[in-house]
Amino acid sequence: MRQEELIAERYGLALARIREIPDESICGEVCRDYFRQMAAFVLLMDRTYEMVKSGALRQMGLEELKAHNRSLYADILPDHYGESYANPDYATNRLGESIGKCLSFLYTELRAMIPAAYESSLFSMTMRVELLLEVYQLFVCAREEQREPDEEELRQILYWYVSDYYEVEFEEKSMALLDAERDFARRIIMESDLSDLRYLYYFGEYVTENELKTAAHLNEMDPEKIKLMADTYTEGYRIGFEVTNKDISIKETVTIRYFLGFERVIRQAVKNFDQIGLQSTFCRAGVNIFQGRGVNKNGYCGANPNKQYDYDHKEDMALFLDGALAERKTEAVRNVFERHKELAALFGGPAVVESFGEEPFVPENKETACRFSEKQQKLSVSNAGKIADIQNEYIKGGERSFTIIAFPVPQIGERYEEIFDDVVRINTLDYMLYRDIQQKIIDVLDKGSTVLVKGMNGNETDIRVQLHRLDDPESQTNFENCVADVNIPVGEVFTSPRLTGTEGILHVPRVFLHELEYRDLRLCFEDGFVTDYGCGNFAGEEDNRKYIRDNVFHHHDKLPLGEFAIGTNTTAFSVARKYGIEDKLPILIAEKTGPHFALGDTCYSHEEEVKSYNPDGKEIVAKENEVSALRDTDVSKAYFQCHTDITIPYDELGELSVLTVSGEKHVIIQDGQFVLQGCEELNRALKG
Fold it and tell me: What pLDDT digit, counting tens, does each position of 216-241 carry?
């Protein structure tokens, strides 16, 4: 019997058993409600699978598709989440703390059947239905034996599910990333009638008015404007290879990450990449335990139905993570890459379209949510480092590149169309103008040994950043002249500072990092490392520190200053102030609106040996710090697998100046204005 037939037989048998659950009353009243709801969800997914398989989905009208889409996500939407088993508060209250956490996780894993149904992945559906039945049988047996279900046995079922299927699931994700023949999303984008918005419901993602209105707005745009947006994006990707002296001709694939609604731009981008010689792949953002959940999406996706849901479940791996499972994960990653090393070598990196404009998210910390123990935090950090090192063996950092661009969505406000046009203008600013102005800033910075940054207007920043010594200032530079290539829009000069001697306080009254808000964020540096930190989000100091440690430090005990940069895009700053959207800007644009400091790895992580040059011909030599230099002796201590930019806006910046070894001071920004000669043009937007 063929593999497909075996899977179909397994699925049929499992589904037949699922259909019996609603009529059974053999596992206790409280648990009976849970399993009936789980069975109902599985049957909904089976109907969806049959609709896709038969073609009935494509025959449905727009309103009918909307209703079905909402039915898939209704249970976790904010209005219903309070009484959903996906909510750990509700699950633990109904089912008990330990069992409740496990069964809440199980439901989130069943929800991964949604994309599986739309992609007709019967194996993915089968493994999750069988997991539900195995857990259900545990409860049935306990009831028959007149005892409570064994919590450890339940945890072991979930543990072995993750261990047994990790390699299979990682391979599925990797193939979506590396193999252009996995063309589920590409076919929808390239073959659909994009004027018929029903196509948005064919992906299996949650669709709201944001996605519908974005697609409608792009449909009304002049084709030349669409082409300009796509050309800026794809040309930035190509130039990224060029300016870093990487050979794009040895690459065959590029993965596109974007949010639904931008298909007109993405379709043109696919055509552009085809002309460059790159086939586009589309990897869906993670929706299960294997790919990882989180508020910040990494892949193509629709709307987020409930960011609190993702936040609640971002550390579900804490239910079962131990040393053996961590080893299993690294083993699986290596096995997959070794099987597909030829495809991995041809992968050029991601091209990302971000969207912004949704209401800022302030999470609730729940005691009932799974959280890593201190031991698990260290294990998770170590494991992530090992997996990153394996990936870099097969997708070499010195050979890949990326690009990122961002556009607003309708939720940004009533002036959406105006804001959209202004963002397009920001993304297509004069490359040459910024290149020349930024070179003047770099010329002054390269004379110095220390940069001083001081805040004003409630910002208490007071920090000294140490620069590397240039052996040959005539041919070397510390700062990269960053224009519109990998990071669109234009507007920053950046470096990897020396850690020794970098000290002081970095403070921002309010900032958004990876879609999370931080109030009164304060970081204290000694020799380039954060030694103390806090914020004002929560009443308790420990809650604030945990919030930062979990979401900024990513469970590391400490992080270094990996990057110091000066943003020069005053146009972006003035546009944000004009529309009052400062709190909604993505990091990509926000980092260009003032000096910024990045915690974690440098911008040249795993690419330190690749020679790159500024437009003036000088080699960029500040590519490592005292930590990343350890890569030659102990790579496990050299990288942190994170990089978080924190920006001080111009109107909170009292002074930014550079000191020479002899003590001479050159002021670049004073009281929020560029005062360095040759930078006057940057102040025009600030005055407007």
Answer: 999 999 999 999 999 999 999 998 89
Distance CA 188, CA 199 (A): 7
Give every residue of the chain whose pLDDT is below 50, as ranges: none
Total residue count of the chain as it appears in this document: 688
pLDDT score at 398? 85
369 burial via Cβ count (<10 Å: 0-12, 13-18, 19+)? buried
Place of tokens 């894993």: 109
Q: Give tens-digit pLDDT for 434-455.
A: 999 999 999 999 999 999 999 9
Structural contact between residues 572 and 612, judged by C-beta atoms closer than 8 angstroms? no
Q: What is the pLDDT of residue 514?
A: 80
Residue 611's pLDDT is 86
DSSP code at position 250: G
Pair type for strands 279-281 and 253-257: parallel
The partner residues of 192 in beta bridges, in order of sequence, read none
Answer for the pair 287, 305: CB distance below 8 angstroms, yes or no.
Answer: no
| pLDDT at 482 (0 to 100) | 83
Please give the Cα distance from 278 to 274 (Å, whole number).
5
- Residue 345 and residue 385: Cα distance in Å, rounded? 20
According to DSSP H, which parts of 446-599 are helical? 541-551, 570-579, 587-590
Q: What is d(CA 300, CA 681) in angstroms, rounded to the nearest whole number?
A: 38
pLDDT the model gives residue 295: 73
- Start-to-end CA distance of the chain, whole Å, equals 72
| DSSP notation for 150-162 | PHHHHHHHHHHHH
> Tell me, what's the pLDDT at 688?
61
Per-residue tokens: 139: 């409860």
Rg (CA), the chain: 26
Residue 28 is given by DSSP the state -
What distance in Å separates the CA atoms of residue 530 and residue 552, rounded to the nearest whole number?
Answer: 11
Q: How far is CA 105 from the centre of its chain?
A: 22
Q: State the chain's mean pLDDT as an integer.
A: 93
d(CA 586, CA 512): 8
Please give the single-letter amino acid code of residue 108. T
- Lay out the sheet containing 403-408: strands in order across: 279-281, 253-257, 347-356, 403-408
The one-letter amino acid code at 437 reads: I
Are 416 and 408 in contact, with CB atoms under 8 Å apart?
A: yes
* Residue whose pair of structure tokens reads 């009164």 in the numeric block: 520
Q: In what order do the strands lie in the sheet with 450-455?
A: 529-534, 516-526, 498-513, 462-466, 450-455, 653-659, 665-670, 673-674
φ and ψ at 532, to 5 degrees? -155, 150
**CB crowding 437-446: b at 16 or more within 10 Å, else e:** bbbebbbbbb
Q: List, for residues 462-476, the tens digit of each pLDDT value.
A: 999 999 999 999 999
Left, alpha or beta for 403 (phi > 0: left; psi -120 to 50: alpha)? Answer: beta
